[in-house]
Amino acid sequence: MCVKINIKTTQYDNNGNKDIIKISSTGKLYEKNGDIYILYKEEETGISNTIKVSDNQVSIKRFGNINSNMVFKNGEKNITKYRMQQGIFLIETYTNNLHINIYKNKSMKIYIDYNIKIKDIFEGRNEVDIEINI
Q1: What dihedral angle (degrees, nearest 10) is formed by the CA atoms of 62, 64, 68, 73?
Q2: For 2-133, CATH number?
Q3: Torsion of CA 25, 10, 77, 96, to 10 degrees
Q4: Which pTM does this prediction carry?
Q5: Which of 31, 39, 57, 118 can bridge 122 by disulfide, Cβ–Cβ 3.0-4.6 Å?
Q6: How open is the CA angle 92-67-73, to the nearest 5 degrees?
């Protein structure tokens, strides 16, 4: 089924700086083996994304100029490879807070608050608000 996707990411670095990134797109939603998948393409970058919503867990896979698979589960650390044109970076995340609200019509709201560390490059905290509307 076709869906409208709105994502707002607020990034905080350790110096107190704040950056907000907003993405709006359309995509597809389907269910498989009890999980919900949302597929969409970022218009500006051409990067394809898959959001997988499972019981108490969300994973976000990105394909294109950037390749990564970030997994979020309350209170858990995850290490992933982030492939960019400049090379491969290891990214460590720790999920502080994950809320998943799925409504009867499959619309949903997802909130992810996580710490992020890219070795010797960046350390900070991100808040991601995802809205999926049918």
Answers
A1: 0
A2: 2.40.128.20
A3: -110
A4: 0.93
A5: 118
A6: 40
